[in-house]
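Researcher: Next entry in the queue.
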Amino acid sequence: MAAILSVRALSKQYASGHKALGSIDLDVEEGEIFALLGPNGAGKTTLISIVCGIVNASAGSVRVAGHDIVTGYRAARAMTGLVPQELHTDSFERVIDTVRFSRGLFGRPRDDALIEKILRDLSLWDKRTARIQELSGGMKRRVMIAKALSHEPRLLFLDEPTAGVDVELRRDMWEVVRGLRASGVTIILTTHYIEEAEEMADRVGVINHGELILVEEKTALMKKLGRKTLRIALAEPLDAVPPDLAPWAPALIDEGHGLEYVFDTRSEETGISPLLGKLGALGIGYKDLNTQESSLEEIFVSLVHAPKGQAA
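Model: Structure for this entry, 312 residues:
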């Protein structure tokens, strides 16, 4: 399949001397979900900002659907949508008005039917006349996605889309991303959470200190990461582990307020999704999930300090 995004020898160095990106080479295929993982300051947002025309590169080239982002800026930008990590929008605007305005910024003609479809797909239609300031954090993030989709981009960047949202909203966001991919949109997702990459991505890239350490199929990357511990904070405490959970052998922790599940990422399936599904079937609610390496810091230690040439 053809690459919708091609990055070649891309670097960024600021006047202060800080090198935000080294020489990055990356191809993202049309129709895939690509997860870009890395800690804060790794270079994820800088890379996205360059592709989207917000930051100028120091060297290298970027093409979106064959259009150079410098010489063919308008065409490349029209193909690209961005949902930034920070929520930036006019608090006093109505939802439908801010989405229509975003479409107009790209010179696209008014299309009320399309805007209605986008808002319905994102469960925002009932909130279309509400002002942004009246919405919850999760709904505001959906509005940002609607704005990014309003001009019908083929490539959509989601920069930490689940940062600061609870478990339920995170699951809802996963469904939104799957729906977007099903509609033909290519997704590039940045996240700290290895669970999100496992749940949604076709391929995963790991970036640290401005260098793209590796790019691999999801299952191949999972084999590199070894064993992890998933901690599940329960909505109500349990007296004992239900027999139906025996296949996963979770341990009861925090005086019954949590479950701890050790899984092996070297296997093709970690068992996390079936376990969470079984909890739901048993009516066992939970309010948070995390792993011991959810920030990927320990993973980066092993990758970054591996002998040169062995990181990938």
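Model: The longest helix spans residues 167-182.
Researcher: Noted, moving on.
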